[in-house]
Amino acid sequence: MKPFLSAFLLLFLLLLHQSHFAKAGIGSSLASLFKSLNKEKVINWVNGKKPPKPEWDKEYLKYLKPDPKLPNLPLNKERKGFAPLKQYLSNFGYLPSSDSFNNTVDQQTLSAIKTFQESFNLPVTADIDNHTLKLISLPRCAVPDMDFNYSFTQNVSWPKAGHRWFRKTNLTYGFLPESEVQPSFTKVFKNAFTRWANATGFLNLTETTYDDADIKVGFYNFSDVLIGDLFGFSFITENPPSDVKTAEINLNGNMYWALPSEKGDLSAEDGVLDLESAAMHQIGHLLGFDHSFMNDSVMYPYILPSQERKVELSNSDKNNIKKQYANVDSGGGGCLGVPSITILLSLGFAYMFLMY
Ligand SMILES: *[C@@H]1O[C@H](CO)[C@@H](O)[C@H](O)[C@H]1NC(C)=O
Ligand SMILES: *[C@@H]1O[C@H](CO)[C@@H](O)[C@H](O)[C@H]1NC(C)=O
Ligand SMILES: *[C@@H]1O[C@H](CO)[C@@H](O)[C@H](O)[C@H]1NC(C)=O
Ligand SMILES: *[C@@H]1O[C@H](CO)[C@@H](O)[C@H](O)[C@H]1NC(C)=O
Ligand SMILES: *[C@@H]1O[C@H](CO)[C@@H](O)[C@H](O)[C@H]1NC(C)=O
Ligand SMILES: *[C@@H]1O[C@H](CO)[C@@H](O)[C@H](O)[C@H]1NC(C)=O
Ligand SMILES: *[C@@H]1O[C@H](CO)[C@@H](O)[C@H](O)[C@H]1NC(C)=O
Ligand SMILES: *[C@@H]1O[C@H](CO)[C@@H](O)[C@H](O)[C@H]1NC(C)=O
Ligand SMILES: *[C@@H]1O[C@H](CO)[C@@H](O)[C@H](O)[C@H]1NC(C)=O
């Protein structure tokens, strides 16, 4: 083969490879998640017909089988599947984001794996082991776990603990009419909103129309997102020049969302998710709660197979609410009663949760 041709092919493959993984680039860059989303409205998810079992994208897991002959990740060597693993860790705040990740095993990624393991109370091996693989193969919320900011790019920001986007205590929510959200489903959300309102003690959450609502709920076609096991996310929108902000909960309409009465059928692996658990979790983000590493918390980012339905606030959640809302005078805007959490503190925060 002519040298220039092989160079061309190499370049082509490299680009193909990178664009493939770049599409999965979500997490700390909410704006890029937006771009990759197909916000086509999904209207046929409520009619009771379960969609076929989803084709999970486990690209990042394909090559990362723990290898007894290779117990430790070889530093500075290539390991197949490492680039998508780096992308994964970066999506959720464990590694800084990058336009393209390669397969080289580097110290920074090993530290990120270690932080991940410490945070989730897994054995700390700084290596790809079965415990770590098991967790990252589960469906999860798209909001990062750490190292992200409350800051607006293209008018959207992640919700973040320590920042209050709303200045009032009477808040409203509404459903995207095109999603054809049926009364049995809005009832589930109403319950979830009431549960949080009750727990905070001073928020009043009532339903209104989608256009007027402070919190807008809709189901969308997420099919263009490469990470197929993403079930939903929430974000804050600013509407300049007004300083009024609104919040949105976007759920993956390609999933089958189960009502509380269907809890016997729950199987995230088969694409059947509990609507009320997702509602509790996403509302939690919008009311100012980051992910919790306590596995009984409604703010735990993964859906554990034994906890497919989790709607009751745990003791750690309730303590967290007390801390967050302790100093809030009704009507006062701005920050909650916690200082904004910097990167270092948010790591410290993670350890704090583990020490409870
Ligand atoms: C992989 O990327 C890192 C930067 O993230 C770079 O330092 C390293 O040289 C790259 N390795 C290869 C083999 O390209
Ligand atoms: C990891 O899990 C695989 C499949 O379940 C098993 O074959 C392997 O022995 C496990 N490895 C370790 C180190 O436990
Ligand atoms: C978050 O904000 C801090 C302080 O402004 C900054 O140093 C840090 O780089 C930001 N982190 C991200 C992920 O944007
Ligand atoms: C942000 O919002 C303003 C006002 O609604 C709008 O003019 C502008 O185009 C928006 N920017 C983006 C990137 O959507
Ligand atoms: C909430 O709305 C009710 C009824 O409109 C009103 O009486 C109450 O003062 C409002 N609370 C706040 C904090 O604005
Ligand atoms: C909220 O609190 C009220 C009054 O204490 C109670 O009747 C209601 O059942 C609670 N709702 C939920 C969903 O916890
Ligand atoms: C809650 O808000 C609704 C609608 O704004 C209002 O009718 C109701 O009185 C409010 N309740 C409280 C306790 O403020
Ligand atoms: C979702 O989008 C994909 C590709 O754009 C399309 O093939 C599919 O029919 C859509 N699904 C629904 C339920 O609208
Ligand atoms: C939750 O965490 C506790 C403490 O780390 C552990 O003992 C328990 O097995 C975990 N539960 C599940 C379902 O993973």
From TrEMBL:
Protein's UniProt keywords contain Zinc: yes
Lineage, top ranks: Eukaryota, Viridiplantae, Streptophyta, Embryophyta, Tracheophyta
Keywords assigned by UniProt, alphabetized: Calcium, Hydrolase, Membrane, Metal-binding, Metalloprotease, Protease, Signal, Transmembrane, Transmembrane helix, Zinc
Listed Pfam families: Peptidase_M10, PG_binding_1
Residues reported to bind Ca(2+): D214, N250
Protein name: Peptidase metallopeptidase domain-containing protein
GO MF term list: metalloendopeptidase activity; zinc ion binding
Residues the entry annotates as binding Zn(2+) 1: D229
Species of origin: Vigna angularis var. angularis
Coiled-coil region(s): none
